[in-house]
Specification:
This protein is α+β, with helices and mostly antiparallel strands. The chain has one domain. The protein contains four helices and 14 strands.
Length: about 270
């Protein structure tokens, strides 16, 4: 009996150690955004699909991480099966701007490359820690047991990240309606004991595998993990106009104003086929 107990103990220790060694690899993320939750204009909502899905990948080790868009040639037409190729004789093809966020974990610095409206930006800034509230609540994501954590962020912080915040377009004024603060809900796993996550989200005792920035309206979730990744892709970006986040916020404000006047949508490239 004692031998059986010792054997089981050895197996359990070996199993636990194996999980503790997950300190590098690649995570695939899928983001689902409720477009109708962002737009109040009924006519505009009728022409746009309710949900948009994008994919990202996170390459990481103990020294650095790289979070970037998985580029697709063209997002599928959400109305392709409706028989009309779109509502009102129009077809929408959505294409997200390319982004790549490199995090120097050791030095707590971040280098974010963004392509917006044929302009290249390189945002360089130090990581700003969040005040996380940890919970014992758990759930499983991509086969990893995760714990819940929450924090409060400002709309400005959200607008400079992948989630894009909770700005809603008012049908009468086209002015964004912004809440004072937003509760950010994340799920992290201690089975990957590296402080990484989608975009700039980190600072927890494990990799963040899910971020909910809009009460289910904007969720990015890890769907798969592999220990293999292209190490050569985990390198610091260098191209683009260099600026810090405050300067980028000003540039983004001008772009958003131009976009609203031109009928654009949240940094997406939209092509309309009549």
């Amino acid at each position: 009996m004692r031998k059986i107990f010792l054997a089981l103990t050895v197996i359990l220790v070996a199993f636990t150690s194996a999980f503790a060694q997950v300190k590098e690899g690649k995570l695939i993320f899928e983001r689902k955004v409720n477009m109708h939750k962002m737009i109040t204009d009924p006519e505009m909502r009728a022409r746009i699909p309710e949900f948009r899905t994008d994919k990202f990948e996170l390459l990481f080790n103990e020294q650095a991480s790289m979070f970037k868009t998985i580029v697709e040639e063209e997002a599928p037409d959400p109305f392709a099966n409706s028989g009309g190729g779109g509502r009102g004789g129009m077809r929408f093809n959505f294409r997200m701007p390319e982004t790549a966020t490199y995090t120097d974990i050791a030095n707590q610095m971040q280098y974010e490359s963004r392509s917006l409206f044929e302009k290249e930006f390189l945002i360089i800034d130090s990581l700003k820690p969040n005040k996380w509230k940890l919970s014992d609540e758990t759930k499983t994501i991509a086969k990893f047991v995760c714990k819940k954590a929450t924090t409060m962020v400002t709309p400005q912080q959200m607008n400079m990240r992948i989630g894009g915040g909770r700005n809603r377009i008012n049908a009468d004024t086209t002015a964004p309606v912004k809440p004072k603060e937003i509760e950010l809900v994340v799920w992290y796993t201690e089975s990957i004991p590296v402080s990484v996550g989608p975009d700039a989200y980190a600072g927890l005792p494990g990799a963040i595998l899910e971020v909910d920035s809009d009460n289910g309206g904007n969720v990015i979730t890890a769907t798969e993990f592999t220990a293999k990744y292209a190490a050569k892709e985990l390198k610091q970006p260098t191209k683009g106009d260099k600026m810090n986040r405050a300067q980028f916020a000003e540039s983004m404000k001008k772009i958003m104003e131009d976009m609203q006047r031109g009928g654009g949508m949240g940094g997406m490239r939209i092509r309309i086929n009549q």
